[in-house]
Amino acid sequence: MTDTPAETRTVVVEREFPHPPEKIWRALTQPHLIEPDKALSYTWNFSHDDTAFDLRSVVTFTLTPTRAGTLLRMEQSGFRPDQKQAYGGAKLGWPQFFGKLEQLLARTA
After folding, report:
1. Which range marks the domain in which residue 21 is found?
2. 3-state secondary structure of 53
3. In this predicted model, what pLDDT tens digit does every residue of 63-109 receive, in sequence order?
4. How many CA atoms lie within 13 A of 104 on its CB side?
5. Distance (Å, whole) CA 100 – CA 28
6. Closest Cα partner for 99 from 39, 13, 36?
7. What is the spatial distance between Cα 78 and Cα 45, in angstroms, rounded to a whole number?
8. What pTM value is reported for the model?
């Protein structure tokens, strides 16, 4: 049995890209001991003297083929209610990441 916070928030960002999952996967990571071209999940730990800034969350990318290319879904879960700044930063930062990823994908083969 694991202890989980009673109340956490999650940031979800989705975008459809006109590229196959394999190309997006290469842009996200080089696969090692994970299921390539479908899903990637990792723990995000950030320690700070002020516990409101301590962040222990899980980031999961899911790639789903579509007729137009690939739907990429990013979910970062585990934000406590007192982590408004971290949650707000993630809500702003992940869409920017998706924009940069789109630029990278447009430049690469």
Report:
1. 9-107
2. helix
3. 999 999 999 999 999 998 888 888 999 999 999 999 989 988 888 76
4. 12
5. 11
6. 13
7. 11
8. 0.75
